[in-house]
Amino acid sequence: MDSNKQLDPTAELAAATRALRMEIGRRKRWGAKRTAAAIAEEAVSPELIPQPQPKAPAAPEQAPPAPIAPRIPPKAAPPLLKEQLQTSLPSTPKSLPCSDLGDLRKRVSTCSRCSLGASPGRSGAIVGRGAPRPRLLYISDHIGPAEHTRQKPLDELAGTLLGKITTGGMGLKVEETHVTSAVKCALPPGCVPSPSETASCKVWLEEEIRLLAPSAIVTLGAGAAHALFGNDAPGGKLKGRLLHYKGTPAVATFHPRDLVARPDLKASAWADLQLLLPSLKS
Ligand code: SF4
Q: Using alpha carbons only, how large is the chain's radius of gyration in Å?
C-alpha cells in the first residue's frame, strides 16, 4: 500500500466490518461443528457410559433366622379304652404281701400312690399303734396336723376318750387294742382326703388288717366306714348294725372327736359298740 495514498476512514471501517462478519460466521460454523462432534464424542465417552458396577461384596453369610414355629393346637387325648382306664387306677403294689408290720411301715413311709405322698411337702405317713394281735381294731378316718404332731392316729382328746370307751364300755385293756387310720399320710389343717386318696391307701389298710387279724373292727367316722366298706354305702346304712369285713365282725360309729364336740352322740355310739360285745366275749 502506498503510504502516501490518503486513507479513507469510511472505506476502511467498511472493510474492517466485512472482515469481522466473515470471521464471526466462520467461527459460528466451526463452532457448531465442534459442538456437534464434541456431543457425539461425549456420547461415547467411557466416563459417561454407564459402566457395569462392580458387584458389592457379598455380605457375610448369616445364619438364617429360625423358622417361626407354627402354632399347633395340642392334640386332644384320645378317650381311654376300658382296659387303659383300669390300668390307670391305682394298682396293687407288686411287692405285696408285706411280711410283717415292720415291712408294712417301711413300704408306707416311701409310698407315693396318691398326691399326699407324692407332694414335695409330704409330712409323713403314720401306720397304726397298739397290739400286734389285737382283740379290737379301731380305724380312724385320716391324719391331721394334731395327730401328726403326736405321731399317733388320734389327737390327745380323741385318744383319751377312746381309751375310756375301751376300758369302761367294752371291758378291754387298751393294750388289747390297735388304732390305725384309713389314710396314712397327714393332711393339711382342715382338709379331708379325697375319694381317690382314700381308695389309693386302701391297699395298705387291707394289708394292715390281714397282718393284725383282729377279733373285731370299729370304724370311727363316716370316712373310715366308707374307706373299708365302700363309697356307695351311705354312712347311715352302715351305722347301727353289725357288719362284717372278710368275716371279721365290725361296726361303724362316730369318731371320738365328734363325741368330744357333741357329747349327746355318746349314747348312739354306745349302742353301736354293744353290737360287738358278743364277738369280743367269745
Ligand atoms: S396316703 Fe396312703 S396311698 Fe397316699 S401316699 Fe400316703 S400311704 Fe400312699
A: 54
Beta carbons of 147 and 126 less than 8 angstroms apart = yes
108, 126, 139, 181, best to mutate for ligand 1 pocket (most atoms within 8 Å of CB): 108
Smallest CA-to-CA distance from 108 within 188, 231, 211, 191 is with 211
Distance (angstroms) between ligand 1 centre and the Cα of 82 equals: 25
Render pLDDT for 194-239 as a digit per residue (tens, 0 to 9): 999 999 999 999 999 999 999 999 999 999 999 999 866 655 589 9
Please state the domain extents for the chain: 95-281
Q: For 95-281, which CATH class?
A: alpha beta
How many angstroms is it from 183 CA to the middle of ligand 1? 7
Q: Which residues in 127-173 belong to E strands, given as ranges? A: 129-130, 136-140
Question: CA 206 to CA 226: how far, in whole Å?
Answer: 13
Confidence of residue 244 (pLDDT cuts 50, 70, 90): very high
Q: Grid coordinates representing 206?
A: 387291707
